[in-house]
Amino acid sequence: MNPTPEQKEIIDYTGHIVVIANPGSGKTFTISQKIISILGELEFYQGVIAISYTNKASRELEKRCLGNGADRKSSFFGTMDKFYITEIVFSFGRHIFGTPKKELEIIDVKNEFFKAFTGFEDLESENAEKDIDAWINNNFASLVKLYVEGYVLLESISKLALYIIDNCISCRKYLKARYKYVFIDEYQDSGSDQHDVFIKLKDLGIISVAVGDTNQSIFGFSKKSSEFLVRLAQNADFKLFHLTKNRRCHPSIINYASKLISKGFTDYISSNETRIFSKSINGGEKETAEWLNAVIPKVITHFGVESRNEIGILVRNSRTGKMLQKNLTLENKFFGSTPFDGNRSLWGSIFESILNFIYDDSLTKYELVGNYLDIELQAGKAREFMRLLSAVECYKDNILEMQKSSPIFIKIARIIYPQAENITAVTTLNIVLNSPELLEFFKPADKNQIQIMSLHKSKGLEFEVVFHLDLHRYVLPKEFNGEYPEAIQDLNLHYVGITRAKKCCVLCTSTVRVNGKGETKTGDPSIFLQLNRLYPLRSPFMY
Ligand SMILES: Nc1ncnc2c1ncn2[C@@H]1O[C@H](COP(=O)(O)OP(=O)(O)OP(=O)(O)O)[C@@H](O)[C@H]1O
After folding, report:
1. Which keywords describe this protein according to UniProt (predicted)?
2. 332 or 338: which leads in pLDDT
3. How many Å separate Cα 43 from the centre of its chain?
4. Contact 276, 256 (CB under 8 A)
5. Does the annotation place 390 within a ligand binding site?
């Protein structure tokens, strides 16, 4: 694939950049091309910092940059948390806070030692996250004492990192000498501390590139907001670029999605066919599954879809996903959430990566080890890591052996992050290893399996055909006492769902729905279907 002129301008520009891009416009493609071209020019001791919001997204970015054999040099690929911990807090905290009494260990607010040491009391309220933040802001001295005892509070990691960058000259010198560029993908999912760290890296002279789409901000519940992407766009130190052309979706899908998020949109792309449809199914979940069983084979033939895993069924609630999984007679794969989704620890991320390696044949041992260790400079550790991976890989088809394999995972985690021992991550690992259902989620779909997943999980993915379910009043957007508490996030989620479709998107409602308490209710259509006079832009589903 050759970059388009607007992509090429971004790849060739050598200063600080903010890119605001439409869905499917090639933002991940463009930054990976830019990273590949920069890596070619760096010395072996230099690198880029390449950050994405989730473990999955950072693995994808790394794969796109290094998949063709590019030399990573001294680059960092991973999440923001991993960057704070490995590159800042563990490496330079002692210069500022004093030498810890023991190997540093990462703990979270639920840890009993933490509670006893600081007097912190469990917060059960809806505002628990806000309250923890407030506690951290008011108790920085306790965090420093905790550090000296050998513990780092996970929830405070960004605050500690910011403090260290501000106060430690050797940290700033190290970052400046080693890293020439910093890239943050999905910047619309940044929080305030992440934004501050990014600006500090820019102020150190590291060339800074942020890429995002304000309309794909869907993690508002974890204090993330597209506000920071907008702020960068207004910052005179950054040159603003746009990626406008959606390379993924059929023009009629692009027109619909654009009108959805912008009432005044009139700049329609000409299209002689409508590929976005609506369908109301008579009945509930069971009838929806029966309808899908009947129409999917027709859709596959009509749109020339080569394999069934290119069909995505996107749901708002995992309940709908599970019901479909049960009732679809067509082969399918449901990707539900795993307990690792909420675990931000380094051990949690390495356990998740090992599970992905075990079940996903497209990941090689060499790639996984290279992600954590310098294979030449840390040859002994790398050899041991590979040996343990081979051992655990053998259990892939043996559920009983898999259940007993956590000591191997722990040995690997101790090689890579000896100081990040995390009991919660080990407990999470054991839950997953003991659940054949959860282990299934780590296996990619076979070519003949239709993929079912939440709208959140579909972010960054694409399908030939999308069936977007759960378009019910009260469900999407969430409605409570006549109010929409997450209106913008929900609209963005709907927008993300539609723009995953390349050739065809079907927006589905049903006359019956089941609520969170398992009660059967009338299924009224979502107000999103009535927004911005969208109905002339879609057709009733006829196939
Ligand atoms: N220059 C190009 N030539 C051909 N295809 C391209 C080009 N740039 C991107 N694409 C294709 O367009 C699709 C979308 O690209 P990519 O996933 O990088 O977009 P994105 O902006 O990151 O998407 P999103 O934010 O919606 O997840 C992919 O199938 C990609 O291969």
Report:
1. ATP-binding, Helicase, Hydrolase, Isomerase, Nucleotide-binding
2. 332
3. 30
4. yes
5. no
Which tens digits make up the pLDDT trace of 393-431?
998 888 899 999 999 999 999 999 887 778 888 999 999
Q: How far is the CA of 193 from the centre of ligand 1 (A)?
A: 29
pTM score, whole prediction: 0.84
Task: Please say whether the dihedral angle defined by the alpha carbons of residues 286, 287, 289 and 290, taken in this order, is positive or negative.
Answer: positive
362 annotated to a ligand binding site = no
3.40.47.10, 2.40.50.1020, 3.40.50.300, 3.30.70.120: CATH of 5-84+168-243: 3.40.50.300
Ligand 1: centre distance to CA 249 (Å):
10
Q: Which residue is it, tokens 């493609």?
A: 29
| Residue 21 annotated in ligand binding | yes
Is it the case that residue 221 has pLDDT exceeding 60? no
Q: Tell me: the pLDDT tens digits for 252-308? A: 999 999 999 888 889 999 988 999 999 999 999 899 999 999 999 999 999 999 999
Pocket of ligand 1 (CB under 6 A): 1-4, 7, 21, 23-29, 213, 247-248, 460, 462, 499
ipTM above 0.95, yes or no: yes
Give the distance (Å) from ligand 1 centre to CA of residue 226: 21
Q: Which helix (H) or strand (E) holds 255?
A: helix 251-261
Q: How far apart are CA 18 and CA 235, in angstroms?
A: 9
The preferred substitution site among 25, 54, 244 for testing ligand 1, maximizing ligand atoms within 8 Å of CB, is: 25
